[in-house]
Amino acid sequence: MSPAVESGQDLLIPSLDPEAAKPYCIHWKQSLGSRKADYYCVTARNITLGTQFLFFIAAEFYMTSTQDDPKHITKVGQLLPGEGYKIKVDSELQYGQKDSAEEVRFVVYHDKNRLPYQHRFIEIAIGVGAAQAQALATHFGYLGLQEAHSDGYLHTF
What pTM value is reported for the model? Predict the structure, then answer.
């Protein structure tokens, strides 16, 4: 098991490749209503630990057309040309994980007023592609979402 992403570590988020990337819509219930938002799921690198992990970023914080947003990745990260954006793990980021042992932690950057359950992100990640889905299922140690312990809200670092 890889060490989990922790507060204070440096992460490298790849630059958006609009040709290859597509957003995924996450649906959830909140305040007696239905909500939805688009997110990108990317493989990011923990510079501090030298490991990779899944990173979900709200579309409005990643797309080129929304760069004026003060929380856009171009405003909060340091550009490393040809690689992506270096950001430090802090209270602006949230995470989900397989269990309380911090196994298979993934990180989410979005408006923290959104309250989707962790499993909503896992569902999207599994849908990304067969190879990635198999790798994620193997990491999580189960074949179906029902076996996941990650049924609560995201946690803030």
Answer: 0.82
